[in-house]
Amino acid sequence: MSPRSKSSLAKTPIPALAKKDVASNVSTVPGKSTPAASVGTCLGDGSGSEGRIFLIDTMSFIFRAYHAMARQRPMSTRTGLPTAAIYVFVNMLRKLRDDFSPHYLAAVFDVAGRTFRDEQADSVTSIRKFDIKTQTFTEIEYKGYKANRKEMPEDLAQQVPYIRRALDAYRIPMLGVTRFEADDVIGTLARKAAEAGRPVYIVSSDKDMMQLVNDKVHILNPPKDNLICDAAKVEEILGVPPERVIDVMALRGDSIDNIPGAPGIGDKGSVEIIKRFGSVEAALERAAEVERKSYRESLQNNRDTILFSKSMATIDTNVPVELDVDSMRAGEPDMDALRALFTELEFTSLLKELLPVVEVSETHYREASSAADVSDVVKSISANGVLAIAVEHEDPVLPAEEASEEEGKQEEQLSFLGGAMNAAPVRAPRRMAISAAAGSATVVKIDSGEAGVKLREIVADDTVTKAIHDYKAAQHALAPIGISVAGVRHDPMLYSYLLDPTYSSHELAEVALRRFNLKLAGDLAESADIAGRLTASLRNEVEQAGLSKIYEEIDLPLVSVLTRMEQAGVKIDTAALAKMSVELEREIEAKEKEVHAVAAWSSMSARQSNSGMCCSIA
Q1: What is the pTM assigned to this prediction?
Q2: In sequence order, what are the beta bridge partners of 106?
Q3: Could you tell me the CATH superfamily of domain 26-127+151-237+317-337?
Q4: Dist. CA 147–CA 184, nearest whole Å
């Protein structure tokens, strides 16, 4: 179907793989040749030790990721770099690796520039379009292959280089061939692999790929719950077997790729015609046998356009590219590269899940046994230092499913100060921890005699400069037991929100992971220690960013205001609400009667209509 001439090296920003048997016009990225985990048997193809080859239709998934997130909350770094498509794509890669443990895989890209289809389309200047209202055909200008496609959105174009970096970090080779589309490269590699007896899974959601399915080649669609399409599934979805897909597409056309098809013959008609005649060529030869006038005339008057459409829709499986299975071998991810990438993109959750993190070490944590122990901590505060305080929170324990749901709600319903609008804990805290220097902290039982009394005295002392992560939550926790907090000048949670407002969570553990790559154990003394460290680090960044005035004159003063508002609650006019309730009940009752009346009339009308039909038939 296409010119078979060799083309020059693809000019893409992908390092070339030094392989003697790789065609000169193919660009690749090296993959580390370390054995991957053994392939599972969930796909049941009987591939044995050969291992399945997974070919990713990369740009298809990049666009799908982009449009899927366009309706969700925007994701970007604090510098303004959009990251939603990268995030979704990376998670797709992770899921593919986790679900199938592929031995061999490659990500196939389109290469910028004209393709052989553009060259073929240059010879076509006009096509016919069917006017459904007048039931006539009109001649219109043909503007070229994919002429209807818009330029890639700028915010998506910014993300593509980072997706390439992610593939590189996961050691997934990237392939692209000049003058050919990714579909053609995938089709050729799939054919060669199948001929070599290797099972192939084309990772794509594009129905065009279904023409490639056979006993060795399947389509894997991850967004559809890992739907696997064999020949039977293709026929179930499209109405024809894989070998007839291009015939249906030739009649149906493709408005996105500007493949004209047969005017006036849509999805249903194309399937009916191909199922009856077997191929486009046969349908054209026997067009006079088609009963429907618009279908018949379309076939009779658009032979060249239909054959051109079939040519454009056919995936070329003879692209000049070698099947280099060794270069596709799945290697272990480059953890350092992933760490650097996810840190730059501010993917905290991925950092936490995928990469090893450092736990807090070389610490001196202890429990106070006397008032002197508490005083010693205060005396050790440096000239410009602060006393970091952590308050023990004892929130009610929720069932697993409720807890998970509540976490999601809190992440989405953060107050503008960066903390969730949480109610006060059910039980009062029994302990607090204080820290005056990094690596040290002292835990004090609030009701522990002299030590507890001394702690209350220090907490209420306005002359002792303090730092508390989530100052508002601490006030809620301490108010019920009569402890007032004074002298709080620093709240690392507020600092974090000022510096990184796009993050959904500013909890201590999340901020510690983002800032210090530390995984917290949840220990109370550790919380006070880390709160102090974060205060020193983030306060400096706030000053450098020129945000000190906002913090000192707006954010920090508002904490106490919000605390009092939440403690006071909202006064409800129960009498007004009761009146509204009665009025709403009346309105609901009236509407309910209307619905029943309409439903009864519709039912009676339907019975009368059916009765009339029966009589006329009789």
Answers
A1: 0.65
A2: 55
A3: 5'-nuclease (3.40.50.1010)
A4: 19
